Amino acid sequence: MTTAMPFDQLQPMPEDWQRALAVVAHPDDLEYGCAAAVAGWTDAGREVTYVLASRGEAGIDTLEPAKCGPLREQEQRASAAVVGVAEVEFLDHRDGVIEYGPALRRDIAAAIRRHRPELVITLNHRDTWGTSVWNTPDHLAVGRATLDAAGDAGNRWIFPELAEQGLAPWDGVRWVAVSGTTSPTHAVDARPGLERSVLSLLEHRAYIEALTDEDPEQYCRGFLTANVEANAQRFGGIPAVAFEVFHR
Ligand SMILES: [Zn+2]
């Protein structure tokens, strides 16, 4: 009989930071994964900013992109406000065909230099969700480019045009934390922010109503609760938002 923690327990997320920048491909990417953690961080007086590579304009089958983009932008701003995030930026890459490459890395590096975060958050950059659900090319592109841009932001020679625009190098990113991967290493207690994370996801109402016939609030609560409870057994029984943390 032992009281030691099992070896596969998730570590608590680092807490000695003040600014985080979350970079994802689409409106709703943060709300499906880690908004409960964001709510807890902003409660503690930390600044969190969202950067979205696209406006998610290809996300609703029944709505053409020219109308869908502005609607989803509006929904994203509302959902960010629910968890204490005041600033949301859009990089205007084209939804569905976001390309991994220097242009995306440069845009993300520029955002990192503007906001000077210690912690960068992104979404699953790996091929699958769990073991057998194929991830989308936009998530792979943005996740990988964000991991790379954390380094690019600190190197004055990789994108010299950024310095010419007045964006000085920022080598202060200490961690990149990836939400939704199959191999998490760290976690955050989801309980204080869970209810707001439900309301935050619910702000993507047009998207959710097109996605499911279920009652939207029931759908959001069910999805997010199951998600954080699944991590509890690896975090001392506490419902948690999990991240795979890369140190820099
Ligand atoms: Zn997405």
Automatic annotation (TrEMBL):
SUPFAM superfamilies documented for this protein: LmbE-like
Signal sequence residues: none
Alphabetical list of InterPro entries matching this protein: GlcNAc_PI_deacetylase-related, LmbE-like_dom_sf
One Pfam family per UniProt: PIG-L
Keywords: Zinc
Gene3D superfamilies recorded: LmbE-like
PANTHER family according to UniProt: LMBE FAMILY PROTEIN, N-ACETYLGLUCOSAMINYL-PHOSPHATIDYLINOSITOL DE-N-ACETYLASE-RELATED
Protein name (record): PIG-L deacetylase family protein
UniProt source species: Streptomyces cremeus
Lineage: Bacteria, Bacillati, Actinomycetota, Actinomycetes, Kitasatosporales
